[in-house]
Amino acid sequence: MQIDFYEILGKTLPLLISVTIGGIISAVVSYRMFKLTLKNDRLKVEEERLLNQEQMRINLSINWYFKVLLLPNTILIETFFNDSKLHLQNSLSTIKESNGELKVKEVNSLNAKHIKEFKILLTSFEFNFLMLVGSHEFFNAEKLLSWQNNLNDFYRNKLIGSTGFEDTQVDVDDALKELARFKTALYSELYKPLKENYK
Amino acid sequence: METNRINLIEYRGNNSTMFTGRPQGEEVRKKLGFDMVDKNENKIILEIPVGTTSFNPSFFLGLLFESISKLGVEKFEEKYEFDLSKVDSDFKEIIEDDIEDGMRHAKNSIKPNFGLESFFND
């Protein structure tokens, strides 16, 4: 029996070629997938590293905010509110005592004096603390500005709005309670970055 | 260039001597149509009426922040002017300071990083 080599080759060659091509494709795909997995793993590691780095930076920044900016200045905040409380109390008491006895010109002078005194307190607090804390990256300085303006509005409403009324209508305790609410609102705003960012 | 004088007396509120509150300032801004006014070349003189005891920065920002933001500080200062000639001498300095405070707050709000940084860069 004569073996026809060319006939066998003709029959098996397509199979051989397709197996070889299949093998090559499979090897290439496997290699590509391996490379891709390797790349993905590297990306994941890099991403985690960056996230950790960012979190570390945030933690450092927040630590700095809390330990350098906020805590040492608590005394400044407390002093501002103590001074404001005293000033509001004294101003309203003066207004209460003098209502009905002063002429328009005298009332104006009294109001102007009180407004100027509080303006000094608030502007000093703005320059010494609010601007400093407002410059921190995690701080919403717009809210701080809004708080400052609301406090200023409240104070002037109380001072100017209290002149010319009967004694009973000038409620000093109520005004002081309102001032205390402003203090609570400020502290709540100041501690927000800690609650939102510290992990 | 035309000059328009606006007396703010009717926007002060009944029996009030103060201009106060950002929402109130924004309301007056709408009534006066300042968004349109900002587009023309006319100069505006805002008259602070007699008997005014306070022109709070909150009201200033409500009334004029948009204009400062759109026009920029320099153009705004060219276009808008305040007339305090009718204000009682006791309150003149206070109102001048209020306007100055309002301008400072507006400038700080316009800048992306405001606070200490802008303070040192000014």
List keywords for this structure.
heterodimer; A: 199 residues; mainly alpha; 85% helix; 0% strand; B: 122 residues; alpha/beta; two-stranded parallel ribbon; 6 helices; 5 strands
By DSSP, the count of extended strands of chain B is 5
**Uncertain residue segments of chain A:** none
Order of helices and strands of chain B: EEHHEEHHEHH
What's the total number of strands of chain A?
A: 0
How many structural domains are formed by the residues of chain B? Answer: 1
So how many helices of chain B? Answer: 6
Given the C-alpha coordinates, what overall shape of chain A results?
A: rod-shaped
Strand pairing plus helix content of chain B: what structural class?
A: alpha/beta
What is the N-to-C succession of helices and strands of chain A? HHHHH
Describe this structure in words.
The complex is a heterodimer of chains A (199) and B (122). The mean pLDDT of chain A is 87. Chain A has a domain of 139 residues. In chain A, 85% of the residues lie in helices and 0% in strands. Chain A is an all-alpha fold and 199 residues long. Chain A is built from five helices and no strands. The N and C termini of chain A lie far apart (85 Å). Chain B has 122 residues and is of the alpha/beta class. In chain B, the strands form two sheets. A three-stranded parallel beta sheet of chain B has the order 1-3-5. Chain B has a two-stranded parallel sheet with strand order 2-4. Classes of the chains: A mainly alpha (199), B alpha/beta (122). Chains A and B meet through helix 3 and helix 4 of A and helix 3, helix 5 and helix 6 of B.
Short description, anyone?
The complex is a heterodimer of chains A (199) and B (122). Chain A is an all-alpha fold and 199 residues long.
